[in-house]
Amino acid sequence: MLSLLGLGDNTIDIYVDRGVQYPGGNSLNFAVYAKRLGVDAHYMGCIGDDAFGAQIEDALAVENVPSPRLRRTAAQTSWSRVRHMEGDRWFDGCHLYTAEEYGINLDDEAYLGQFDLVHIGVNSMLDDKISEIARASKRLSYDFSDKYSESSLGRIAPYLEVAFLSKADGDLPAAHALAGHVAKLGPSLVAVTRGSKGAVCLSHGKLFGQDVVATEVVDTLGAGDAFSAVLTVEYLKGTDTRSSLELAAEFASEICQVEAAFGHGRPAISIPDANRQKQGNCD
Length: 283
Hints:
By secondary structure, the protein is an alpha/beta fold. It contains nine helices and 15 strands. It has helices at 26-36, 51-62, 99-102, 109-112, 130-136, 150-156, 172-185, 223-237, 241-255; strands at residues 3-7, 11-15, 20-24, 40-44, 46-48, 71-73, 79-85, 88-95, 117-121, 140-143, 162-166, 189-193, 199-203, 206-210, 266-267. It has an eight-stranded mixed β-sheet with strand order 4-1-9-10-11-12-13-14, sandwiched between helices. A five-stranded mixed β-sheet has the order 8-7-2-3-15. A two-stranded parallel ribbon has the order 5-6. β9 (117-121), α5 and β10 (140-143) form a beta-alpha-beta unit. The radius of gyration is 17 Å and the shape is globular.
């Protein structure tokens, strides 16, 4: 059985208008989705010793995602405020970990080496450790979201087997060009998601396109992570890229039918102030 590790970021997504909070975060979502896909998926990250951290830990237990290296830190668990209007969502405040607070170190090299692939999200604050993680791991995937630059791509992409990026703006040729540029840096599989316009994928030098699967959308949060999880799992299984993309789009559409990334909501008893944005882009 394939074994995957989601390494790094987690958060609590607080749905301010609805008074409900949910666990999420790219690396955490990836691990949960991979587990639901029948993979031996684990999660490793840091949580604060607070109610947000307890909610993440409880969700991992319910989803049967092993997390033996989950760490508690003195920092508050990451959170994001999510607002909704007419089916759209946006973030209006967040607390993201800093690299100093995050607390992941490489005492775990042997642990990382047990997995067929380790996945990292851009908010995991692990970029400065990417070469060490790559040496300890069999394969790496990385989700840049829309937080990439020529410099960050040059530093990180050469260590990757699989790379994901988001480019909702721009035309199709621009997405193709981005995928081609990243692939030249090293990854064998590069996917560029384009929101409602679907995705493009470059696999071993061949370009593919994929439309979104029409569905009744409840919430798009987590859909991109679901797409990435399926595409990665099927890539490792050796499934052809065309079929892999179709399966990924179908699973993403299923995630759009539920609220938040993967459920496990709780009443938002204390909602942080919108002005408490510590750093970076909340999305």
